[in-house]
Amino acid sequence: MSSKSRKKVLLMGKSGSGKTSMRAIIFKSQLAADTRRLGATIDVESSQIKFLGGLRLDLWDCGGQDSFMDSHLTAQSSTVFRSVHSLIYIFDAESPELLTSDTAYFLKCLRTLRDQNPPSTSSSGSSGEDGGPTVFVLLHKMDLVPVDMQASKLAEFEAEVTKKARESGYQGGLQFYGTSIWNETLYKAWSIVMSHLMPSLSSLRTHLSHFLSLSSASEVVLFERTTFLVISSVTNEQEVHDTEWDERRFERISTMVKAFKLGCSKIRSPFSSLVVSTQHYTAVLDSLTPETYILVIARGEIQPAAIELNIRLARPHFGKLEAIGMAR
């Protein structure tokens, strides 16, 4: 398999920060309440995940206890950090050592990451600002922070960590997101991460835009089938210009539909599609390809049957795109 279709991603952070819980929710379809029973990661747990368009995600969940972290940074550094496409580093928002020892470990990881993936020799799959691996920083457990303080806490944390990273000599890009397993912020961050790993998203958006136009839809959203992460979306700006849209609406849908699918599986009733029709809008969520679901939202006067027909007619076209790597 080519290096372009196989991406190594590190999931790191101090013990108890929530790495394994978020991995179980996103990739193993566990409910947030069920993650309390998960144990700590021992050393490194590597999993190969088949994703959209032929992408194979090689996800390394690295144990965060001090002994394991020290081993990752010394004896195992070449094994763990070499040929990495992206690093996802998790901080516990309520840790008393957030800007001290927790950040110190993160800075050590950045140095080791750069040592093992120097910009001049990094793989073509790497896509940080300077050619090295991309680094995503998730300030996790934000539900424990008062709502009116969450934005300022994330901004202050980003500024301080970025400053320390620059002072330590790291010049690559850092992308910061606040997350919680109890709301849609987790799906928002991971949708961005996964979209970053996928090739040719701009080409896929072009095909979705054609579908939106031909079906007279207001909005079209593409979800990955298993994780229900948002892959791409297009909007008819003229139709929604005067409407206030929730910026997190797609991730809220991901959270609700995935929970609904889990409920269906528990009563041995497989989920296939969903239709919502009101006076103001019609929404159809249905399978598009073997690896995707599509959500089509249109004006209320457009009948669900018309949308379902358009989806059915579009399946062969998008199926071919998926077979060749989603428009690569």
Structure description:
The chain is of the alpha/beta class and 328 residues long. The protein has two domains: 6-197, P-loop containing nucleotide triphosphate hydrolases (Rossmann fold, 3-Layer(aba) Sandwich); 201-323, Beta-Lactamase, CATH 3.30.450.190. The protein has helices at 19-27, 66-73, 77-81, 101-116, 147-167, 185-197, 201-214, 237-240, 249-266, 304-323; strands at 6-13, 44-50, 56-62, 86-92, 134-140, 174-178, 219-224, 230-235, 274-277, 281-289, 292-299. The strands form two sheets. It has a six-stranded mixed beta sheet, sandwiched between helices. Helix 6 (185-197) packs across helix 9 (249-266). The longest helix is centred in the middle third of the chain and has 21 residues, at 147-167. It is elongated, with a radius of gyration of 21 Å.
The number of helical runs is 10
Q: Quaternary status of these chains?
A: single chain
Q: How many strand segments?
A: 11
Whole-number count of domains: 2
Strand content: 15-25%
CATH fourth-tier homologous superfamily of the largest domain: P-loop containing nucleotide triphosphate hydrolases
What's the average pLDDT? 87
Give a short account of the largest sheet.
6 strands, mixed
Low-confidence stretches: 121-126
Please state the second-level CATH architecture of the largest domain.
3-Layer(aba) Sandwich
- The radius of gyration is 21 Å
In sequence order, what are the helices and strands, one letter per element? EHEEHHEHEHEHHEEHHEEEH
Backbone shape: elongated
CATH class of the largest domain: Alpha Beta
Strand order of the largest sheet: 2-3-1-4-5-6
The helical percent reads 25-40%
CATH topology of the largest domain: the name is Rossmann fold
Secondary-structure content class: alpha/beta
CA(first)-CA(last) distance: 15 Å
